[in-house]
Amino acid sequence: MSDTSVKNDKVMKGVDRETIRDVLNNYARGASTEQCAQSAGVDYDTAYQIIADAIAAAQNSA
Q1: Residue 12 vs residues 27, 29, 30, 45: alpha-carbon distances, Å
Q2: Which of the two residues, 22 and 6, has the higher pLDDT score?
Q3: Are 8 and 27 in contact (CB under 8 A)?
Q4: Among the residues of 3-61, which ranges form H helices?
Q5: 50 pLDDT exceeds 60?
Q6: Rounded to whole angstroms, how far apart are CA atoms 11 and 49?
Q7: 30: exposed, middle or buried (C-beta count within 10 Å: 0-12, 13-18, 19+)?
Q8: Residue 15 · residue 41 · CB < 8 Å
Q9: d(Cα 48, Cα 36) in Å, to the nearest integer?
Q10: More confident residue, 62 or 37
Q11: CB burial readout 34-45, b (16+ within 10 A) else e
Q12: Residue 12: count of CB within 10 angstroms of its CB
């Protein structure tokens, strides 16, 4: 397991895949971080971290 995946597991502990998918789908459709958090039922900081991790992962894989 890479260092990145270990770090992401620690940050996302307790957040299920459905919630992550909801946050990222809403963000991809132009919703703000606050809107993503509200629609997925998580707090702002969790939504922000989900989005930030996804962006970082996309940049690292490109």
Answers
A1: 17, 22, 22, 11
A2: 22
A3: no
A4: 3-11, 17-28, 33-40, 44-61
A5: yes
A6: 8
A7: exposed
A8: no
A9: 9
A10: 37
A11: eebbeebebeee
A12: 16
Quick one: tokens of 16?
A: 């299920």
Task: For residues 1 and 18, give the distance between their C-alpha atoms in angstroms, rounded to a whole number.
Answer: 22
Express each pLDDT in 22-33 by its tens digit. Answer: 999 999 999 999
Token pair of 1, please? 């397991």
- Total-model pTM: 0.78
Tokens of 41: 């039922």
Q: Which residue shows structure tokens 């307790």?
A: 14
**Type of residue numbered 31:** A
Q: What pLDDT is stored for residue 52 in this prediction? A: 95
